[in-house]
Amino acid sequence: MEPLEKKSPDDVKRIVEAVLFAVQEPISARKLSDIVGDTDTREIQEVIRQLREEYDAHDRVFQIEEIANGFQLLSRPEYHEWISKIRKKSSESKLSQQALETLSIIAYKQPIIRADIEAIRGVQSGQMIRTLIERGLVKITGRDEVLGRPLLYGTTTKFLNHFGLKSTKDLPKVEDLEMP
User: Fold this and answer.
1) How far apart are CA 12 and CA 37, in angstroms?
2) Is there a cis peptide before residue 150, judged by omega within 30 degrees of 0?
3) Which candidate, 126, 129, 83, places its Cα nearest to that of 103?
4) What is the sign, positive or negative, of the torsion defined by CA atoms of 155, 132, 106, 26?
5) Which of the four pLDDT bands, split at 50, 70 and 90, describes residue 4?
6) Does an H or E element contain 138, and which?
7) Which of 116, 140, 114 is nearest to 127 (CA)?
8) What is the mean pLDDT of residues 24-53?
9) Domains (ranges, CATH) in the chain?
């Protein structure tokens, strides 16, 4: 197929599907549009809607999920048990209880300063915050206007991707969480 040639709707659908199959991270409709060429984001979103319907109609084991302002082809949750058997579980990819606590506070209270995180946790959290920044789950979002202008922290797109969220609005409601 010539690059300048107008692509048929089926060609566009195949290209989008191939790209979604190949990427390791969510990809935006705008980026897909740029890759396909001669399309706009509305057309890409329509193609994604059609692909989702086809996958559901044919009971495919994968689906297109919208995550972190992008789209990604993922296996359906009901196959997690089998897929997890082939994935290597490294201790590096796991977060400690302390890191999860710190990350949760940041996710729900962002933007937040370190002193407020420590007040909630009741312990020093500087090292946990540094670890979360190194892993790309947390970032510095600015400085607070209070005395000393402490750093403000918030979550990243990688955080959304890691937890399969479109935005932080998709976090469970605090009142719905079961406390031990």
Assistant:
1) 9
2) no
3) 129
4) positive
5) low
6) strand 138-143
7) 114
8) 94
9) 9-78 (1.10.10.10), 97-174 (1.10.10.10)
